[in-house]
Amino acid sequence: MLSMDMSVESAGAPAALVRRAARADRPERAADWARWTLTLAEPPRAEGSFARRLAWRLLTRGALVPLEPALEAELRARFGARADAAARAVHRLQVAAVAALPDGAPARLDSDLARTREFDAAQAQWLARAALLDLARLYADIGAIYPETRGGDQVPVHVSWTGVFRPGWTAAAAGGPTPDALPFEPTADAPAFRRDDAALEALARRLLAVAALRPGQAEATAALLSGRDLALYWPTGGGKSLPYQLAALLSCGTALIVAPLRALLRDQERRFAELGVGRVGLLVGDDAETTRRGLAELSAGRLIAVLAAPERLDVGSFRRALRGAAETGGVSFVAVDEAHCAARRGHDWRPAYRALGARLREWCSASGRVPAVAALSGGASAGALAEAE
């Protein structure tokens, strides 16, 4: 029997724990705690369905990944003080299932978790069923907005906590971190986007912890996921950030988010971190090592989003990293916040804003892929908005 060790750096966690970790600004400790190894009995296929690729991206979007809110509430009710451990177990079961199968949720999901004595047999079975039902819902919501032809019948998957594979099942083992384990990233082209507001709202609840979408948010998100340019002028506090946050998570590639002030960019990074999204590059020139690491991650296409000021496009190293991202995973779209700064009326202090349109088309396009550009503003005169657009 062949086997492959895969490095995973994400753990399931309650939303409150994710927020505390983000606010404590201790990403290294969270990453160390979340690092583990998934061993598959057979080497996984990198190719498969797009739904699998996107599910993997969402399940491994950060060191600590919150569960779907209703599932987390049920874990709290059933397991009390052990809900944190239950969330971690559910996450490992789901990650293993996505890695093991090239398309869709398994027909059945089981484990030997009870052998660890952290949970009894009935509890372990319940966790496996809950993980499977939740994963199937995630696949269904993704499939509603990205319809594609499904593969054949699914097979059962067994996940071991003791390193013992079950004969006749697609098998995986969850264990401690292994130095020589390899990273894994499924590959698949995205099918054409189809707007489904119910699915977008379900995904927004899961990923952004909102009770419901506000009027216009589904339409704006759909525009970005369809590759259409967007001008969005809503009052401050109206929820204009949600469409590009949700679209960044639901598209493969890297979203570029431009804002004029470091404080705004840091707020965006903090919001992403509180939602469990750790694959975000904040390029504000804080220190040379952070910038070097962020540019390398951007160039390799490993970031979900990159945050920068418009003047960053004047820097050759940033333009080269953007080109690298465009040629690897692609730049999914560009969101320009405070877009009224592009108008001449009283805003000549930021001339870099006026050149953004041409620069972004040049540096974020590759192989025929031209990203959509979104202009967002929370308030300005009608004349300034028209000029900015």
What does this entry look like structurally?
This protein has a six-stranded parallel sheet. It has a five-stranded mixed sheet with strand order 1-3-7-6-5. It has 15 helices and 13 strands. The mean pLDDT is 91. The chain has helices spanning 15-24, 27-34, 50-59, 69-79, 83-100, 121-145, 197-208, 217-225, 241-249, 262-274, 288-299, 316-327, 351-354, 356-363, 382-388, and strands at 4-8, 11-13, 36-40, 64-66, 109-111, 157-160, 170-175, 230-233, 254-258, 280-283, 305-308, 331-336, 372-377. Helix 11 (288-299) links the parallel strand 10 and strand 11. Helix 6 (121-145) crosses helix 7 (197-208), helix 7 packs across helix 9 and helix 8 packs across helix 9. The protein is α/β, with parallel strands linked by helices. It is elongated and about 70 Å long. 43% of the residues lie in helices and 15% in strands.
Defining key terms:
15% strand, 5-stranded mixed sheet, 6-stranded parallel sheet
